[in-house]
Amino acid sequence: MTRTPYTLRDWESGRLDSRSLFRFVKGLGVDSAFYRSTHPDDAATTAWLDGSATCVLIADVIDAIRSNTNSLVYKNTGKRPPRLEPYKRPWVRSRSSRYGSSPIAIKEFNKWYYGR
């Protein structure tokens, strides 16, 4: 309610009538938290307004520039360019899981698997 001089306490005390409060809530823009919580299917659209989609776009641009630069550097060398790791995206969880510290030898696999 920072766009008006009223707060919810004004509505509780009766200084602000329910009709005015309803008009205020109905008139909130798509950049408000209320709109995002009541329209979860519009998440892709509202992401551009709050800036979260911008971060994804910038990370993709960084990956594209690094890939092009890598290809140009190795163009006439006759060597294959090394595989680049994508730019670290903190909002994406890593899907790789590591179990144990080292691989199990073939001789020990049956003992490990069957528990003998």
Give the structure's gist in a few sentences.
The protein has six helices and no strands.
Report on this model:
With 116 residues, the chain is mainly α. Among the domains are: 1-42, no CATH class; 51-87. The protein is 52% helix and 0% strand. The chain has helices at 8-13, 18-26, 33-38, 43-50, 52-73, 106-114. The longest helix has 22 residues, at 52-73. The chain starts with 7 loop residues before the first helix and ends with a helix.
Q: How do the helices and strands line up, and which of them pair or pack?
A:
Layout: H1 8-13, H2 18-26, H3 33-38, H4 43-50, H5 52-73, H6 106-114
The biggest beta sheet reads: none
Work out the radius of gyration: 27 Å
Number of DSSP strands? 0
Class of secondary structure makeup:
mainly alpha
Helical stretch tally:
6
**What separation lies between the terminal Cα atoms?**
68 Å
Q: H/E series, N to C? A: HHHHHH
Overall mean pLDDT:
81
Low-confidence stretches: none
Strand content: under 5%
The geometry reads as elongated
Question: Helicity level, as a percent range?
Answer: 40-55%
